Amino acid sequence: LEGPQIAALNLAAQHPVATVAQAEAMVARWRAAGPWLDTHAANLRQELGRGRVAVRTPVAKALEGIDATLAQPLEELAFLAPLKEEHPNWAPSDLAAFAADLTAAVRDAILPALRRYRAVVADVVLPAARPDDRPGISHVPGGRQDYDRLIEVHTSLPLSAEAIHAIGLAEVERIDAELAELGERVFGTSDLASIRERLRSDPALHFTTRDEVFATAERALARAREAIPAWFGILPIADCEVVAMAAHEEAHSTIAYYRQPAVDGSRPGQFFINTSEPHTRPRYEAEALAYHEAIPGHHLQLAIGQELTGLPEFRRHTGPTAYCEGWGLYTERLSDEMGMYTSDLDRIGVLSFDGWRASRLVVDTGMHALGWTRQQAIDFMVDHSVLARNNIVNEVDRYIVWPGQALAYKIGQREILRVRTEAMAALGSRFDIRAFHDAVLGHGAVGLATLAEIVEEWSGRVAAAPPPS
Hints:
Number of strands: 3
Distance between the termini: 61 Å
Largest sheet: 3 strands, mixed
Order of helices and strands: HHHHHHHHEHEEHHHHHHHHHH
Strand content: under 5%
Helix content: 55-70%
Number of helices: 19
Radius of gyration: 23 Å
Strand order of the largest sheet: 1-3-2
């Protein structure tokens, strides 16, 4: 039930309109969106008849997004944003045709279908939606078996929900101890409740304007660009830019996300950051967020993957969640090794984010396998992370509608750290961090078992090579 407008906008951004042919393709996609929405509504009705229905709060949020879209004047809809692009090399007749055809597609195909879809969501799905105290997929027929499969899809490892839950609890305990130690240095207390209260409530530790949120992200990205040559041999050709989320998505979106570069080179990688409610955006988390989403995190991994040669096309653009998100989380602590954090306060952000991802192991398995309620998940994350409550609520609702995906981050990070530790032990003084990172990134996104084989093979070659003269 993701907002259809957001899905359409994301699709549009993946396909820039630089040529008349691309404009014609976009018009065709927009026309096809109407039948797609009707098919999606029919699927919702069919699955409802089988007892498979979504949870009330996420359904209500989807309805809010649809209503906000339908309340806008036609000419202000983000579906028509491509018409604002300038095309000085196009013939006037092509510009006029694009404007007329895209507007007609939105007016005559998307909006009527969106109204029909809204009726199904409001009148059929919402009244039958599962209550928030039964958010897990295990509450629908066949859901627990589905969740077991989704665990392996997203982690690429044969782990049980119970084992992951235990890993999460142990990780939370370890990170809480680190936070207590760092809190003593920064705030003069090791009491976790006091540290979290200070971090959440002190206005001085939060932004005051949207511009501050955006500027801090840009400074962190610039610092990372300067640092990466000493730590990576393979560097991407594509650049990365910071982009503020648009108003239509920021209210119910997570704090940030990354979009990889356009394949044809027409758009760089993009680090989208949520600048809404800046007083809820902690200054101490901003650097870790930038490093995860952009450099040396997602942008480095995904842009390098796109630019690799000798791989099948599909392998250059996608891959297991645990590899991609595990790499992003791995780089948050790596960035401290690289000397990129400004202060101990910013290192608290690293622990906050690590605790957040560890908590995901607990609450995702808790809701989808162990019978936790939505409120139990929210309360656990309030107690074991320092994310603002509005962010925690959005995060928990994300886990509800995307079972298993949230497990990938911490499981992937732990595996990358494990193979790095083993390589360091095997190679001793011959271990080279740049070469290790190139081995991890140089084959595209792979499953974690395959990654372990790649690193083991690289380590063996290094160990067998003659020592440098």
